[in-house]
UniProtKB/TrEMBL annotation:
It comes from the Bacteria. This is Radical SAM domain protein. Keywords: Iron, Iron-sulfur, Metal-binding, S-adenosyl-L-methionine. The keyword Metal-binding applies. Its cofactor is [4Fe-4S] cluster. Binds 1 [4Fe-4S] cluster. The cluster is coordinated with 3 cysteines and an exchangeable S-adenosyl-L-methionine. Residues 60-193 form the Radical SAM core domain. The keyword S-adenosyl-L-methionine applies. GO terms for molecular function: catalytic activity; iron-sulfur cluster binding; metal ion binding. [4Fe-4S] cluster binds at residues 64, 68, 71. InterPro entries: Aldolase_TIM, MJ0674-like, Pyrv-formate_lyase-activ_prd, rSAM, rSAM_sf.
Length: 308
């Protein structure tokens, strides 16, 4: 199947713009016919099972299908800053990261480049790529599109940002977010199944769902936790993020133009513990800091380790 044909009437993401990217048209995400990346290097600020000691081979893709007002990487996600790469050049990036000792190939915000990624992964595997592939995304994915990745991805690392359409529309311009993301996670789990780790604690396959706590929305976070625990129990991991940082896009939104109150994040962690959840990564409270941009993620430990 020639996946590039999809780009002539692009409906890869839930926006379903239908634009002809092969002829230079761009939709909501702003992506064109070639993959564009902002950075490819070893990354040490992911969850411990992904970064490990050697680092994750992170490839940060430009553009995004979401429009989150609090995005910590606005220049890359919305302005599209980066460099165009051919499929072969992208394969070269993967192999270079493998040569550097990366634990995995970590594709960050890659949805709008799936045809290019499949081509590049095929190329790289023929040339010796043998690392697990991590699909690191915002959760706003079409289950139908994800099926194109079956057999290519070992670890899915999506966000689950919202439970209510009200907040999804206001903060990310995606009113159907929860329905779409929950169907996407179901497809992700169908493909890779329950998590597996190697002897050094690195994840080899599975699903880790991230949720970054937003000011004033702890009740939303609890609904997401309830949903995931009821549906998947211990078959997936949850990563709770405390690193919310005030960004220029939240100006005029008083509810987001503030830091997380002290103790707010710990309340969510305690809630997870009260449910009996153990497969939870937690950050240090106060991980909100501009020094994590574009590094993104603070330090993590698991909920089970926290009690040791």
């Amino acid at each position: 199947m020639d996946l590039y044909k999809i780009l002539s009437e692009c409906r890869l993401c839930p926006r379903e713009c239908g634009v002809d990217r092969l002829s230079g048209e761009t939709g909501v995400c702003g992506a064109g016919a070639k993959a564009r990346i902002a950075r490819a290097d070893l990354h040490f600020w992911e969850e411990p099972c992904i970064s490990g000691e050697n680092g994750s081979g992170a490839v940060f893709f430009s553009n995004c299908t979401l429009r989150c007002v609090y995005c910590q990487n606005y220049d890359v996600s919305s302005k599209g800053k980066g460099f165009e790469k051919t499929d072969e050049e992208l394969a070269d990036c993967f192999l270079e990261l493998q040569d550097k000792g990366a634990n995995n190939i970590n594709l960050v915000t890659p949805t709008h480049y799936i045809p290019q990624l499949v081509s590049a992964l095929d190329n790289a595997k023929k040339r010796g790529l043998n690392l697990p592939v991590v699909y690191n995304c915002g959760g706003y994915e079409k289950a139908e599109t994800l099926k194109l990745l079956d057999g290519y991805v070992d670890v899915y690392l999506p966000d689950m940002k919202y439970y209510s359409d009200k907040y999804a529309k206001r903060y990310s311009g995606a009113k159907d977010y929860f329905k779409t993301a929950s169907e996407a996670v179901s497809e992700m789990y169908r493909q890779v199944g329950k998590w597996e780790f190697d002897n050094s604690g690195l994840i080899k396959k599975g699903v880790i769902i991230r949720h970054m706590l937003l000011p004033g929305l702890i009740f939303e976070a609890k609904k997401i936790v309830d949903y995931l625990f009821e549906k998947y129990e211990d078959k997936i991991w949850l990563s709770l993020m405390s690193q919310y940082t005030i960004m220029p896009g939240v100006r005029g939104m008083d509810e987001l133009n503030r830091n997380l109150p002290k103790g707010y994040y710990e309340t969510l962690v305690d809630y997870c513990a009260s449910l009996g959840m153990e497969n939870v990564y937690v950050q240090e409270e106060g991980s909100s800091d501009l020094c994590y941009i574009p590094e993104f993620y603070g330090s993590y430990q698991s909920l089970s380790e926290e009690g040791e």
